[in-house]
């Protein structure tokens, strides 16, 4: 599942573009962690492309109460939500 929300976070500096928080949850089946790890290199490469393009502000794994990875989140900047939705998030975050 992929969710997008506008960020209310402000650093007190002038922002060039709107910020968005993108959250993607992993599957809940037994093979979900194996699928995540199998594509982790592609996932990190996609994140680096967003960083080099000036879109990625921060990101990381979402952990459950036992410290097991259960998803990912990214804070990104794009000119508009329409531009944000043009990104192939499947290549970046969906396992």
Q: Provide the β-strand percentage band.
A: 25-35%
Widest sheet, order of strands: 1-2-4-3
Relative helix content: 25-40%
Q: Based on DSSP secondary structure assignment, what is the total number of beta strands?
A: 4
Put simply, the count of helices is: 4
> How many independent structural domains?
1
Q: State the CATH class.
A: Alpha Beta
Essential attributes:
single chain; 95 residues; alpha+beta; Alpha-Beta Plaits; 4-stranded antiparallel beta sheet; 4 strands; 31% helix; YCII
Question: How is this structure best described in words?
Answer:
This protein is an alpha+beta fold. The protein has a single domain, classed as 2-Layer Sandwich (Alpha-Beta Plaits), CATH 3.30.70.1060. The protein has helices at residues 32-38, 40-52, 81-85, 89-92; strands spanning 2-6, 19-25, 56-63, 69-77. Strands 1-2-4-3 form a four-stranded antiparallel β-sheet, covered by helices on one side. β3 and β4 form a beta hairpin. The longest helix is centred in the middle third of the chain and has 13 residues, at 40-52. It comes from Sphaeroforma arctica JP610. Pfam families: YCII. InterPro entries: Dimeric_a/b-barrel, Sec-metab_biosynth-assoc, YCII.
């Amino acid at each position: 599942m992929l969710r997008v929300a506008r960020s209310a976070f402000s650093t007190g500096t002038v922002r060039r573009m709107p910020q968005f928080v993108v959250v993607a949850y992993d599957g809940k089946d037994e093979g979900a962690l194996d699928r995540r790890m199998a594509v982790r290199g592609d996932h990190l490469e996609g994140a680096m492309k967003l960083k080099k393009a000036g879109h990625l502000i921060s990101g990381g794994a979402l952990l459950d109460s036992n410290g097991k990875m259960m998803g990912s989140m990214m804070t990104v900047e794009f000119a508009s939500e329409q531009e944000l939705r043009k990104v192939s998030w499947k290549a970046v975050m969906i396992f």
